[in-house]
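tool_call: predict_structure(chain=1)
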Amino acid sequence: MTQVALVTGGNRGIGRGITQALLRNGWRVSIMATRPAPEDVLAELGELGEVRYTQGSVADLDDHARYVDETLAEWGRIDALVNNAGVAPSERADILQATPESYDRVMDINLRGPYFLTQRVANVLVGQAREGEGVRGTIVNVSSISAEVVSTNRGEYCLSKAGVGMATRLWAVRLAPEDIVVYEVRPGIVATDMTSGVTEKYDAYFASGAVPMPRWGVPSDVGGAVVQLVAGAMPYSTGDVITVGGGMQIPTL
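tool_result:
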């Protein structure tokens, strides 16, 4: 049986790295992203395995229904959900000047959307025929080191990722009796479009010795962690946080 994963924002950045890792490990991957289907990217991913695409926004609950329904219509089942899609504020603004519009946009995409997509997929997993023993399904929430590390020029982003941490624990407890496991992956500083505008800042941060592994992370680093979590090899573990940040979560003097 070929397993099926949903990966939101799986066409670029960290999401693309996750999609590539899953495909290389024999998974089918269903992507949802806001942009029109990128034919060149899909062709490249298609060389690794079976991939499909739904254009839609994680902030739109109607798009959730279409995404899940289209995936089930094509492949008949779902085995994992990776809530990866997320945004930073359009403008990094001091929290003294942050706007309600920016706050609402970030929260809708980063926290509210994944919460209700998880609800929809979890109900599918609960009602789906079991395939043998062990884990019935896996949900992975991709958050950020910003769930704990403060950036006062993007407060709404930090709050949204801290909320993802609590959502992970909530879903882990609720779904544990159903043999559905839930994890949180917290990337550190990863080279993507989101971080391209602050390269000099983070280069200096690495050079200062603040991170035990003094290099930028890459999307494949996160993809490797996700593949391990969805493998079903830890059926008695749920609600755990895996940091993919070169050790930057470790307090040092």
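agent: The beta strands are 4-8, 28-33, 51-55, 80-83, 137-142, 180-187, 241-244. Proceeding to next step.
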